[in-house]
Write a structure and sequence with these properties.
Layout: H1 4-16, H2 21-31, E1 32-39, E2 44-46, H3 48-61, E3 66-69, E4 74-76, E5 79-87, E6 95-104, E7 107-115
Helix pairs in contact: 1-2, 2-3
Length: 117
C-alpha cells in the first residue's frame, strides 16, 4: 500500500504536472479516494471528478509552468507534507506552497494546499 510520500510525489508529477486529461484522470483514480476533499485558499473540491475539473482549471491559468518539490517530505501518522514551487522550467518560481495530505487505505483522502504569502 502506498504511503504519503509516494502519493504526494505521484500527485505532483502525474496529476498537477500532467497536461493530458485522460492520463491525469487515470492518476487521480490511483492516487485519490473516491470521496477526496481538496481545499486551497480559493476553493474546496469534493470527489475525483470535481478534483479533476479543479486541476484542469489551475493548469489553464499557467500553461508551461511546472510544479517541483521545494523541500523534504515530512510526515506523521497518516499525514504527509511537502513544500513545492511553481514556475517555468529552469527559471525562478512564481508561486510556492505546502501540500498536506491525509492518507486512508493507500490513497489521499484529504488534501490541503497552503500558499506562501
Amino acid at each position: 500500500m502506498a504511503g504519503a510520500e509516494e502519493l504526494l510525489e505521484r500527485m505532483l508529477q502525474e496529476v498537477f504536472n500532467e497536461p493530458d486529461p485522460q492520463r491525469r484522470a487515470a492518476a487521480i483514480a490511483d492516487v485519490f479516494t473516491d470521496d477526496v476533499v481538496f481545499t486551497d485558499d480559493g476553493r474546496t473540491a469534493r470527489g475525483r471528478e470535481d478534483l479533476a475539473a479543479t486541476v484542469t482549471g489551475l493548469l489553464a491559468q499557467g500553461p508551461g509552468l511546472v510544479f517541483t518539490p521545494a523541500g523534504p517530505f515530512r510526515g506523521v501518522g497518516d499525514l504527509g507534507m511537502r513544500p513545492w514551487r511553481l514556475g517555468p522550467p529552469g527559471a525562478e518560481p512564481v508561486l510556492g506552497g505546502l501540500d498536506v495530505a491525509q492518507v486512508a487505505d493507500g490513497r489521499i483522502a484529504r488534501l490541503w494546499t497552503v500558499l506562501d504569502a
